[in-house]
Amino acid sequence: MAENKVAENQPSNHVGEKAQLDLNKMGVRSMADLLKSQPSEPSFLVDGLLPSTGISIIGGKPKDGKSTLIRNLIHAVATGGSFINKSVQKGSVLYLALEETDYYVTDHFRKMGVDEQTPIHTVLKKTTTADLRLLIGELKPALVVVDPLFLFIRVHDGNSYTEVYNAMGELNDIARDQKTHILTVHHIKKGAVSGPDSLLGSTALFGSVHTMMMFEAKGNDRVLSTRQKYGPHLDPVILKYDSSIQVYSYSGTEELSRVQSMQDEILSLIEEKGTCTHQEIKGSITGRSDALSTAIQQLVDQGLVLRLGNGTRSSSFTYKLPQGNGDCSVNGGVQ
Fold it and tell me: For the chain, what is the domain count?
């Protein structure tokens, strides 16, 4: 019995074998090794938006123009242009257009001005991840586009976290091994859901990508924003569409557009009334109070509106046009 007790306390041969593991071969690095290394910062295919190596997803409603925008990106990468006012790393592109016809794809690229030497390769039929890996190894693209995602990964249950995460993980492995960026195109849910939860299917879609781009229609304009693993998120920007060449162009941030719209309303209001208080302006114009204050301040700074008074209770602010007359007291001033 005592002998058994001693034997139980002795390290087994199996434990002893663990001590002989080759930690370097298994990818284990000590903190000393990490601190001695000088890893480079992640590089970007699209400056501050899409990393050179990784995967991303763009979500939007059907027929809102996602594929058109992505072909704009493909053209920018292949020609070294810009995308939504951001610089782009030039390189070849592999485009899996799994829902498109060759006529519409060819027509769009022709309108954007490509020629026979433009380094874009298209695949217009369903393919496999094994074939994709071979194609990337052969063509060495800087960007791979998969449109739409679920026609490629072909999961049985798009709401299954495990199934979707494993499928996206395979794409991530390909991107990392081949040092390329894979951009996937996907639909969003119906209704008012926004942000990462808007993607149709499992939340694993958002959890597995480096950048999620959200693309939505607002009237005749389109709005693009991002949620990112690397770098700051992209605040909503407005894109204007030129139907003659089927190209979206950057038209400023949504916040800037909102402020400019408020400024037009403020000028019209003051012109109508002669002078206005802050409360009159605030009561007549809808929007966030911080955006309204920014709009007023910019008008004052630009000399388009005169502000009288010093914002105190006895000498509160008055706003009027430079050529206007009259006066009006303000209660509370600009907040």
Answer: 2
